Amino acid sequence: MMMCVTLCVANQRLSAAATSKTFFVIHGWTVSGLFESWKDANVIVVDWLDTAQNYYALAAQNTKMVGQEIGLFIDWLEESANVPLEKLHLLGYSLGAHIAGFAGSHATNKVGRITGLDPAGPNFEGVHAHRRLSPDDAHFVDVLHTFTRGSLGLSIGIGIEQPVGHVDIYPNGGSFQPGSLFTMTSICFLTISIFNIKICEHERSVQLFIDSLLNEGEASRAYICGSNDMFNCGMCLQCHKNRRHIVGYDASKVRKARSIKMFTKTRGSLPFRGQFENQLPKLNQLAMDPALTVSLYGTNGEAEALKLNKITANKTYSFLVVTEKDIGDLLMLKFKLKEVRAGETQKKIVLCLKDPQMGSSAQDVHTIVRLTKYF
């Protein structure tokens, strides 16, 4: 089977200098706005649209052959152009992520890094490592998962859910992305006959990586955590022992025997980095289901009426709160609890802050507040 794969080199001459990085960008990228972000780099854009524009199953099947051709080109770069493979970074979006994996595994020697941007799920979820992107394909493989939930009549997500790299990051749990809307237009990365929609949540992985280039000092941070539920409870926000890592271009190169799962919260638009984490452990003496909000006031502004989850009796809760903007150093926070009365007794429930110096309180609800800056 003959296949046409076009490789477009961003700069006029491919620099073989050991100090210059070489990037392969494999489908799904908007070319404008990328080159100026990588001023001191070689950027190679892979064009396989003629092969990709088929129904999904055939396009997925073709990824291995495209990857093999790129692998041969990588061998040529190393042997004839003296490009050091430790400086080679493959970036693949959706099906392109698996192409990057096949390219890395087919090259004679390992490339330095592969970044998978929401690797495609259908036909790849649950298969053996040699049939998809895997940690074996490069010295360091990092992955962003942004659209893993099943939808559009599929039992699995558009993006793969299982960990497939050394580091797998799940922004906002890897499913719903704030600010994303479904619109009835052609898909931006790959025109597939069974899909006729643009999936903003799938593209968010690309936008997060671009954000890390454009806002290098303000890139999002992700935290090692057992699950998204644990992260949402504020249980994993430790910065010590390499538990916090930068999302995107400057991701820490962590290599362990098994994949490390990380989670983060983002805003709905550029820059995506969230600003505050708020933990509110609660000691409750009465059952209640209040409408509870918190407002944060800082030196640069405020974030008001941020909703918290409902509270039930005799449990400890933590809430993760992310603001849309950086409010600076925290000056004050306010809690608002809509008046609640018990159904049978009509006894009023009151929210107060427990003062350790006062000892036990006569109030019905005690709240201990711990606020931590979220980076």
TrEMBL record:
<keyword id="KW-0325">Glycoprotein</keyword>
<dbReference type="InterPro" id="IPR001024">
    <property type="entry name" value="PLAT/LH2_dom"/>
</dbReference>
<protein>
    <recommendedName>
        <fullName>PLAT domain-containing protein</fullName>
    </recommendedName>
</protein>
<dbReference type="Pfam" id="PF01477">
    <property type="entry name" value="PLAT"/>
</dbReference>
<dbReference type="InterPro" id="IPR033906">
    <property type="entry name" value="Lipase_N"/>
</dbReference>
<dbReference type="InterPro" id="IPR000734">
    <property type="entry name" value="TAG_lipase"/>
</dbReference>
<dbReference type="GO" id="GO:0004465">
    <property type="term" value="F:lipoprotein lipase activity"/>
</dbReference>
<keyword id="KW-0358">Heparin-binding</keyword>
<dbReference type="GO" id="GO:0034372">
    <property type="term" value="P:very-low-density lipoprotein particle remodeling"/>
</dbReference>
<keyword id="KW-0442">Lipid degradation</keyword>
<dbReference type="InterPro" id="IPR013818">
    <property type="entry name" value="Lipase"/>
</dbReference>
<comment type="similarity">
    <text>Belongs to the AB hydrolase superfamily. Lipase family.</text>
</comment>
<feature type="domain" description="PLAT">
    <location>
        <begin position="272"/>
        <end position="375"/>
    </location>
</feature>
<keyword id="KW-0964">Secreted</keyword>
<dbReference type="GO" id="GO:0016042">
    <property type="term" value="P:lipid catabolic process"/>
</dbReference>
<dbReference type="InterPro" id="IPR029058">
    <property type="entry name" value="AB_hydrolase_fold"/>
</dbReference>
<dbReference type="InterPro" id="IPR002330">
    <property type="entry name" value="Lipo_Lipase"/>
</dbReference>
<keyword id="KW-0443">Lipid metabolism</keyword>
<dbReference type="GO" id="GO:0034185">
    <property type="term" value="F:apolipoprotein binding"/>
</dbReference>
<keyword id="KW-0732">Signal</keyword>
<dbReference type="Pfam" id="PF00151">
    <property type="entry name" value="Lipase"/>
</dbReference>
<dbReference type="InterPro" id="IPR036392">
    <property type="entry name" value="PLAT/LH2_dom_sf"/>
</dbReference>
<dbReference type="GO" id="GO:0008201">
    <property type="term" value="F:heparin binding"/>
</dbReference>
<dbReference type="GO" id="GO:0005615">
    <property type="term" value="C:extracellular space"/>
</dbReference>
